[in-house]
């Protein structure tokens, strides 16, 4: 499928062999084609979000082991579990871009795509003869998203880096955790997820500009800059007032009360009194008008000064009640409160269940697999979770290259024999919707 001309809408009917949207009717990004050359989490997530909204995403993996995330984290029956969720809605084509044959095929192929996503270390694509200038000569309308830990320039640019180092550089770890313990790095890919979301947003912005001008663009996304958005409030305060915050555990410096509190049955709640009205609701619920009038707690400034006493009162009130009773009482009092769930209990939470926030999709190897749904909801446009990440590296190589480039069986066999491609041809059917 060729890209739409400037100022026109994408063709809503996908070409033969291109996955249809998971539900009936044109999806948000129907007709948009994305070539995902990236590995691990941040950049692949950007492509996955575009797939969630209906784009046709083809993931290019190196012959052999493929994407590193296939072996990242927990495995079951030899299958990487996170891979299944992170690579949903994509088809896998195996192609060795280091080889001249692979490079030449890509340069022919890229004409058919609107977006290319990559996260190689700066200079890698250029050494392979596939720098953005070359790619955009082949397809001037192409939007290239380049995701690296530190960006394409600067003294750190060529250093290896992951989201962990981005979180450290951005100042997240220094304000995370408790004051009597070391800085805390999150136990999940926080910066990578932030970068993936920002990358998808940037691609859509570049596509809108292309809609107006007809020209593509190169988007340079540094993961640490995505993480910086999380501490922007601290940046402004430090520059203006010279205030540098330390670690405060579950408390939040600008407001009190705020934190997690354990109930009598061992379960936890989360509570926030970030506005004066909400703080008064908490005080009235746990101590009546006498506590509301207590001079230690009448203003936010006083509550912050006496936060230890305030937290002790809330903890004692919660500790005398099971969680259901505590939640009911605080909710009835107008407080901003909710259950502090584990992953296991979150999946059974009635709000999560009501909105279908966790979807279950069928995988040919693992059976039903739970993963997050497509967020946010759109009233008019259909969305749905695509099939889980392909089992085999290059599962769709023959089908996609035959369709897109017209390669015949003999040519495809020769490419596999030479190690330029590999992988069986299984799974090039249209992507089904969520189960």
- Portion in beta strands: 5-15%
Multimeric status of the protein: single chain
How are helices and strands ordered from N to C? Answer: EHEEEHEHEHHEHHEHHEEHHHHEHHEEHH
Question: Level of helix content?
Answer: 25-40%
Based on CA atoms alone, the radius of gyration comes out at 25 Å
Give me the number of helical elements. 17
Structural class: alpha/beta
Cα distance spanning the termini: 29 Å
Give the overall silhouette. elongated
Name the poorly predicted regions: 1-24, 425-435
Could you give the count of β-strands? 13
Describe the structure in brief.
The protein is α/β, with parallel strands linked by helices and about 425 residues long. The protein contains 17 helices and 13 strands.
Structure write-up:
It is a single chain. The chain is α/β, with parallel strands linked by helices. The chain has helices at residues 42-52, 81-86, 100-109, 124-127, 132-138, 163-169, 190-213, 223-228, 232-241, 276-292, 300-305, 307-319, 323-332, 343-346, 350-355, 397-405, 409-417; strands at 33-36, 56-61, 75-76, 79-80, 90-94, 115-118, 143-148, 217-222, 258-262, 268-272, 336-340, 358-363, 367-372. The strands form four sheets. A six-stranded parallel β-sheet has the order 5-2-1-6-7-8, with helices on both faces. Helix 1 crosses helix 7 (190-213). The longest helix is centred in the middle third of the chain and has 24 residues, at 190-213. It starts with 32 loop residues before the first strand and ends in an 18-residue tail after the last helix.
């Amino acid at each position: 499928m060729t890209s739409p001309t400037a100022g026109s809408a994408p063709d809503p009917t996908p070409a033969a062999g291109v996955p249809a949207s998971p539900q009936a009717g044109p999806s948000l990004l129907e007709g948009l084609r994305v070539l995902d050359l990236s590995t691990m989490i941040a950049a692949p997530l950007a492509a996955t979000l575009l797939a969630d909204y209906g784009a046709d995403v083809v993931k290019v993996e190196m012959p052999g082991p493929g994407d590193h995330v296939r072996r990242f984290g927990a495995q079951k029956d030899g299958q990487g579990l996170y891979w299944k969720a992170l690579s949903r809605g994509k088809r896998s084509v195996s192609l060795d871009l280091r080889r001249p044959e692979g490079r030449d095929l890509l340069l022919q192929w890229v004409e058919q795509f609107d977006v290319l996503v990559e996260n190689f270390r700066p200079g890698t694509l250029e050494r392979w003869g596939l720098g953005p200038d070359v790619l955009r000569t082949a397809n001037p309308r192409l939007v290239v998203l380049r995701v690296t830990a530190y960006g394409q320039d600067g003294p750190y640019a060529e250093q290896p880096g992951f989201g962990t180092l981005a979180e450290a550089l951005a100042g997240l770890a220094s304000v995370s955790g408790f004051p009597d313990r070391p800085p805390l790095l999150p136990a999940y890919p926080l910066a990578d997820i932030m970068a993936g979301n920002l990358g998808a947003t940037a691609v859509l912005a570049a596509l809108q500009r292309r809609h107006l001008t007809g020209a593509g663009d190169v988007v340079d996304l540094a993961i640490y800059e995505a993480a910086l958005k999380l501490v922007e409030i601290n940046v402004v305060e430090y520059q203006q007032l010279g205030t540098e915050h330390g670690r405060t555990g579950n408390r939040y410096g600008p407001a009190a009360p705020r934190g997690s509190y354990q109930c009598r049955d061992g379960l936890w709640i989360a509570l926030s009194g970030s506005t004066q009205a909400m703080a008064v609701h908490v005080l009235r619920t746990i101590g009546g008008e006498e506590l509301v009038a207590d001079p230690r707690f009448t203003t936010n400034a006083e509550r912050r000064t006496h936060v230890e006493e305030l937290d002790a009162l809330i903890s004692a009130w919660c500790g005398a009640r099971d969680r259901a009773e505590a939640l009911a009482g605080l909710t009835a009092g107008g407080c901003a409160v909710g259950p502090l769930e584990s992953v296991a209990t979150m999946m059974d939470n009635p709000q999560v269940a009501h909105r279908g926030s966790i979807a279950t999709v069928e995988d040919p190897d693992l059976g039903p697999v739970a993963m997050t749904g497509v967020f946010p909801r759109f009233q008019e446009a259909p969305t749905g979770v695509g099939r889980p990440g392909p089992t085999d590296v290059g599962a769709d190589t023959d089908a996609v290259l035959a369709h897109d480039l017209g390669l015949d069986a003999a040519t495809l066999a020769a490419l596999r024999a030479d190690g330029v491609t590999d992988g069986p041809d299984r799974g090039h059917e249209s992507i089904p919707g969520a189960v």
